[in-house]
């Protein structure tokens, strides 16, 4: 059994990146005090609340860096994993990155947002080029960021590689898409949003919300058993069926690019 959490947090106006991150850290403390194994924070938490554009070179920071060190302190204190999105600077490039902090406070992995909206492209953010998955002591996870959810391939790529839970820091979007990504890949999905949709919630593989942080600020969590199959009473194990019955041999011109 693993306890997965999300937070509902949005900083309206902060003086600097450290202050923005600290607003989320208060909720990480709550998640840790309630013995959560992993918590999902929001998108680009090191500049939300600041009056800057994404990809701002003065805000973007290295990973590891100041924000991951602060999150690492809490991860180590409560022996929990943390997922968060940060504006990252790597050499001359800036990325919208999702980072995984392990129970010892170390950076265990990161993902660069592949699908960038026009606003991030114009701001000079560099797109990622892959969908890594990460092994934890409770199972394999993957991460997507915001606009990635608009497309089917990020979640599918993670699921094909064995991800059992997908974490989604997202500014805002469509609840129907979040539900669909969970259902079509038969994975748990944890979203942390700044808008009303999708909610800050934990979804089961059937797209149902099993925990939701409705108030701001707040934390919500769900206990899930990744070893317990959840077959459809009529159709059986849908995760296996989706993998076996998908017609990868049927190619539509243009969709392979």
UniProtKB/TrEMBL annotation:
Keywords: Hydrolase. Residues 2-226 form the CN hydrolase domain. The keyword Hydrolase applies. Gene3D superfamilies: Carbon-nitrogen hydrolase (3.60.110.10). GO terms for molecular function: hydrolase activity, acting on carbon-nitrogen (but not peptide) bonds, in linear amides. Transmembrane segments: none annotated. InterPro entries: Aliph_Amidase/BUP, C-N_Hydrolase, C-N_Hydrolase_sf. CDD domains: nitrilase (cd07197). SUPFAM superfamilies: Carbon-nitrogen hydrolase. It comes from the Bacteria. This is CN hydrolase domain-containing protein. It comes from Candidatus Glassbacteria bacterium RIFCSPLOWO2_12_FULL_58_11.
């Amino acid at each position: 059994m693993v306890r997965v959490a999300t937070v509902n947090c949005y900083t309206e106006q902060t003086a600097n990146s450290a202050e923005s991150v600290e607003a989320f850290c208060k909720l990480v403390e709550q998640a840790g005090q309630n013995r959560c194994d992993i918590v999902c924070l929001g998108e680009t938490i090191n500049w939300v609340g600041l009056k800057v554009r994404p990809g701002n070179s003065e805000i973007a920071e290295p990973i590891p860096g100041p924000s991951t060190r602060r999150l690492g302190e809490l991860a180590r204190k409560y022996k929990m994993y943390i997922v968060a999105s940060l504006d990252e600077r790597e050499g001359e490039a800036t990325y919208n990155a999702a980072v995984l902090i392990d129970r010892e406070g170390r950076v265990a992995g990161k993902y660069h947002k592949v699908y960038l909206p026009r606003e991030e492209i114009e701001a000079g953010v560099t797109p990622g080029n892959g969908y890594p998955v990460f092994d934890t002591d409770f199972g394999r996870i993957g991460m997507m960021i915001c606009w990635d959810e608009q497309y089917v391939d990020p979640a599918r790529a993670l699921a094909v590689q064995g991800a059992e839970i997908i974490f989604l820091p997202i500014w805002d979007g469509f609840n129907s898409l979040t539900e669909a990504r969970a259902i079509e890949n038969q994975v748990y999905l944890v979203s942390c949003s700044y808008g009303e949709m999708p909610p800050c919630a934990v979804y089961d593989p059937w797209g149902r919300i099993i925990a939701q942080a409705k108030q701001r600020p707040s934390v919500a969590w769900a206990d899930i058993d990744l070893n317990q199959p959840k077959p459809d009473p009529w159709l059986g194990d849908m995760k296996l069926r989706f993998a076996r019955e998908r017609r990868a041999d049927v190619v539509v011109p243009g969709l392979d690019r």
